[in-house]
Amino acid sequence: MNEKNSFGLDICFGEKNNPFELFKEWFDEAKKTELNDPNAVALGTSDDRGYTSVRMVLLKDFNETGFVFYTNFNSAKGLAIKKNPNISMCFHWKSLLRQIRIEGSAEQVSDIEADEYYSSRKYESRIGAWASNQSSEISNRKELTDSIRNFKSKYPEQNNVPRPKHWSGWRLKPRSVEFWLDGEFRIHERLKYIKEKNDWKKILLSP
Ligand SMILES: Cc1cc2nc3c(=O)[nH]c(=O)nc-3n(C[C@H](O)[C@H](O)[C@H](O)COP(=O)(O)O)c2cc1C
Q1: 89: left (phi over 0), alpha (psi -120 to 50) or beta
Q2: Nearest protein Cα to ligand 1, atom 31
Q3: CA–CA dist 104, 65 (Å, integer)
Q4: Cα 12 to ligand 1 centroid, rounded to whole Å
Q5: 42 in ligand 1 pocket by Cβ < 6 Å?
Q6: Catalytic residues
Q7: pLDDT tens for the 207 residues of the chain, in order
Q8: Is the Cβ atom of 134 under 6 angstroms away from ligand 1?
Q9: What is the 3-state composition of the chain as percent helix, strand, coil, each rounded to the nearest 5?
């Protein structure tokens, strides 16, 4: 028989008192087993009309303060988050048959943090952050390639491309994090951490 934790769940759920340590364990495994982009995560937003939208982003950092991704703050998601900071993330690692769902509120990362990450990106990606008005309509592809060319001539030095003010990161500060493992005949295993003041309460959910 497989080993179980104190909740009777698969041993991979461990006995952690906060979700960050367990996230790290699962994420580290996903890095070994996923074909590509283990840090790809579905990001759910909803605007001030209550309209929802979901798209993939890349998780670029995480620690006990939250889960960070970078984007254009004038994009559709950026504008939605400014109106309604309640957002969610969902990882699905097919190679592990696992899912992690995170819900909470978004907070902008500091300029120092954003600058540090921005400067680690390739020159072309930094130029792209200037050249693309993400989520706005363009009349043809040439408009974009012209814009890229213009910004390359404006910032010809690879090490001297400032970060656009509208390009930065959001940190999802979680209210809850749910870990899910595929089970036989859809009798899956679910462990949810819920933030209560400075502690995390753990509950089991029916599949
Ligand atoms: C695997 C994957 C990773 C992505 N990572 C990011 C990202 O980190 N930041 C980002 O702005 N867009 C990323 N995108 C593009 C977004 O999914 C989306 O097309 C774009 O951000 C515009 O979304 P919006 O119009 O809802 O703002 C990624 C797409 C894929 C498929």
Answers
A1: beta
A2: 56
A3: 11
A4: 30
A5: no
A6: 186
A7: 578 999 999 999 999 999 999 999 999 999 999 999 999 999 999 999 999 999 999 999 999 999 999 999 999 999 999 999 999 999 999 999 999 999 999 999 999 999 999 999 999 999 999 999 999 999 999 999 999 999 999 999 999 999 999 999 999 999 999 999 999 999 999 999 999 999 999 999 999
A8: yes
A9: 30, 35, 35
CB 7 within 8 A of CB 204: yes
Q: How far is the CA of 57 from the centre of ligand 1 (A)?
A: 5
Q: How crowded is the C-beta side of 82, counted as CA atoms within 13 Å? A: 10
Q: How far is the CA of 43 from the centre of ligand 1 (A)?
A: 9
**Does the Cβ of 180 fall within 6 Å of ligand 1?**
no
Domains annotated for the chain, with CATH where assigned, are 11-108+171-205 (2.30.110.10)
